[in-house]
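Query form — protein Peptidase S1 domain-containing protein

QUESTION: What is the three-dimensional structure of this chain?
INPUT:
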Amino acid sequence: GPAAKVRVGLIDLKDPDYGMQERNIIERIKHPSYRVPSRYNDIALVKLDEPLELNAEVRPACLEVNSELPIERFIASGFGKTEY
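ANSWER: The structure tokens for Peptidase S1 domain-containing protein are given below.
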């Protein structure tokens, strides 16, 4: 089924207590064009049961609103799916 929790602020998978905040997902809105198994439009909004505490490890994501980006190369990073 769909994810029930989010973990944010996690920097080291071997030390999950350092800076990590865990919240329950109470509502999710997936992108209307997302289709499995495609990875396109793999993004969603989630409503959490409690606000997150913003700090050095937890910041808002700023999304570009201009569809004409002047940059030709992008880099994305993350842990990816480590388990489910």
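ADDITIONAL NOTE: The mean pLDDT is 83.
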